[in-house]
Design goal:
single chain, 12 strands, 4-stranded antiparallel β-sheet, alpha/beta, 6-stranded mixed β-sheet, 8 helices, 270 residues
Length: 270
C-alpha cells in the first residue's frame, strides 16, 4: 500500500483557510444520552491528526460528528464554512469516510465497490469516465487490491476487505479523509503500508483524521487529539512532553512512553 502516484490532486492553493475542520461548543447526544460535552478543536490542513483515548471515550462519535453523520449542537466548520451549508454532493467530494464495520453488498465485484467512491463526481446514471477509471485504478494499486478486482466482496478475508474499503475512500480523492479504526484486520506489514500511504497523502496536501487504538501507530501522526469521557484532554504534537503526560493521564498512568531509534512508543504497565 505504500505506492502513491505522483499525480497532484490536493491543490491547497484554493483553500482559503489553514483549518480543514474546526468545532466550537460541540455537543452530541445519542439516544438522549450526552456523549460529547462542549468540545472545541481545530484540525489543520495537510496534517495527520490521530484521535486516541480509552474505550468509550467518544472517539468514534466525535469523528462521525465531524463527518456530518450525526446530529449535533454547536458549530462545525469544514474548510472555513459551516458543514451544514455545504451542498451534499460538494461535501461528499471534499470529505471521504471510512467507518468501522462497514457493510457492503457481498455479491458486488471489488472494482464496483471501489467505484462507489466516485459517486460524488458523477450522476447515478452516468457510466464511469476515464477520470473515474483512473482514480479507481490508482486507489486499488495504492492498497494492493487491484488483483482482486473481479472477485465478489464477500469472498475476501477481513484484511482484504478493509483494504478494498480504504481504496473506495481513496477513490474519492477528497481533501479531507476521515477514518475510524482503519487498521482493523490489517496485519503488521499492511499497517506499515497504511502508515506510508497516509504520510504520502499528507505530503500532497490531504488532511487525514483517524481514530486509532494502536497507540504506537498513532504516535507517528503530526498531532494527537486525546479524548476521555466525552471531552478533549489535550491536542498537540506527538513528540511533546505535555502530549505524553495527557496520554498517560487518559489511560490512568498505565502507559510508559519511551523513545526507540527516534520514534516514541507507548508500552503498557502491568
Amino acid at each position: 500500500m505504500a505506492h502513491v502516484a505522483q499525480t497532484e490532486r490536493f491543490d491547497a492553493g484554493h483553500i482559503m483557510t489553514h483549518k480543514a475542520l474546526a468545532a466550537r461548543h460541540l455537543n452530541v447526544r445519542l439516544n438522549d444520552v450526552p456523549i460529547l460535552h462542549d468540545l472545541a478543536l481545530t484540525i489543520k490542513v495537510a496534517c495527520w491528526t490521530a484521535i486516541v483515548g480509552p474505550n468509550g471515550a467518544g472517539k468514534s462519535t466525535l469523528l462521525r460528528a465531524l463527518a456530518g453523520l450525526l446530529p449535533f449542537e454547536g458549530q462545525i466548520d469544514l474548510l472555513g464554512q459551516a458543514v451544514q451549508s455545504w451542498p451534499a454532493r460538494e461535501r461528499a467530494r471534499r470529505v471521504a469516510w471510512l467507518g468501522q464495520h462497514e457493510g457492503g453488498a457481498d455479491d458486488l465485484r471489488v472494482h464496483d465497490v471501489v467505484m462507489l467512491g466516485r459517486m460524488p463526481h458523477r450522476s447515478w446514471a452516468a457510466a464511469p469516465n476515464p477520470t473515474d477509471l483512473a482514480a479507481v485504478h490508482e486507489a486499488m494499486q495504492q492498497t494492493q487490491s487491484w488483483e482482486w478486482r473481479e472477485r465478489p466482496l464477500g469472498q475476501l478475508s477481513g484484511g482484504e476487505r478493509q483494504r478494498v474499503l480504504l481504496a473506495r475512500a481513496l477513490a474519492v480523492q477528497a481533501e479531507v479523509l476521515l477514518m475510524d479504526e482503519p487498521l482493523a484486520h490489517l496485519d503488521p506489514p499492511h499497517q506499515a503500508d497504511w502508515l506510508a500511504l497516509v504520510r504520502a497523502l499528507v505530503a500532497k496536501g490531504c488532511t487525514v483524521v483517524s481514530v486509532l487504538h494502536e497507540l504506537n501507530i498513532a504516535l507517528h501522526a503530526n498531532e494527537l487529539l486525546i479524548v476521555s469521557k466525552g471531552r478533549i484532554l489535550h491536542q498537540g504534537p506527538c513528540d511533546d512532553a505535555s502530549t505524553h503526560h495527557s496520554l498517560q493521564n487518559a489511560f490512568d498512568h498505565r502507559l510508559r512512553l519511551c523513545q526507540v531509534q527516534g520514534q516514541w512508543l507507548a508500552l503498557p504497565l502491568v
